[in-house]
Amino acid sequence: MPAQIGKTENGNALHYSVGAIIKLQGKYLLIDRAIKPSGFAVLAGHINDGETTEHALAREVEEEGGLGIASAKLVWQGEVENNWCSRGIGIHYWNVFECETTGDPMLFTAEAKSIGLYTIEEMKKMPFDPAVLYWMKKLHIL
Ligand SMILES: [Zn+2]
Q1: What is the 14 CA–ligand 1 centroid distance (Å)?
Q2: Which pTM value belongs to this model?
Q3: How far is CA 92 from the centre of its chain?
Q4: What is d(CA 21, CA 130) in angstroms, rounded to the nearest whole number?
Q5: Pairing relationship of beta strands 92-102 and 13-24 according to DSSP bridges
Q6: How far apart are CA 96 and CA 82, in angstroms?
Q7: Number of independent structural domains in the chain
Q8: What's the CATH number where 42 sits?
């Protein structure tokens, strides 16, 4: 599925992405990415051509974690540079949500090695996907 492509103010190509911050039992749900960008990340992905942000969020959360969304609150939006994806685009415009979910998390994607729940203390020692780390810091989670 082609990812939606836009342009920065300077005319550079960008992709649009969604990220889902999900807290269960007081811990954060993360996957260990098997493909680039590697590192631990929240459930996240591209917004496809013709897809709404809300649909992309629901799709990624289901595809990567087997969860439904009960409610979602937009907590951060912005461009992240030096954020290269496997499709050769280096800038992503992120829409980050805090989500309440339904169901039990399960790993469904070949794009990740594992899925798990982690405390802030554990997360501080883990290698993160740089873009996710960037906005987790902006949100003062890490
Ligand atoms: Zn991309």
Answers
A1: 7
A2: 0.95
A3: 11
A4: 15
A5: parallel
A6: 18
A7: 1
A8: 3.90.79.10
- Which structural domain range is residue 104 located in? 5-138
DSSP 8-state secondary structure symbol assigned to residue 91: -
Query: For residue 56, how far is its CA from the centre of ligand 1 (angstroms)?
Result: 13
Query: What is d(CA 137, CA 55) in angstroms, rounded to the nearest whole number?
Result: 26
How far apart CA 142 and CA 138 sit, in angstroms, is 8
Q: How far is the CA of 13 from the centre of ligand 1 (A)?
A: 10
Q: How far is the CA of 16 from the centre of ligand 1 (A)?
A: 7
Say which residues have a Cβ less than 8 Å from residue 124's Cβ, sequence separation at least 6. Answer: 142
Q: If you measure from the C-alpha of residue 33 to the centroid of ligand 1, how many angstroms do you get, rounded to a whole number?
A: 15
Distance between Cα 84 and ligand 1 center (Å):
7
Q: Measure 75 CA to ligand 1 centroid, in angstroms.
A: 21
Task: Give 40-93 pLDDT, tens digit per residue.
Answer: 999 999 999 999 999 999 999 999 999 999 999 999 999 999 999 989 999 999
Q: Which residues pair with 29 in a beta bridge?
A: 117
- Report the separation in Å between the CA atom of 137 and the middle of ligand 1, taken as the mean of its atom positions: 21
- Asked whether 130 and 83 are in contact (CB, 8 A), the reply is yes
Give distance in angstroms: CA of 25 to centre of ligand 1: 31
Residue 37 one-letter amino acid: P
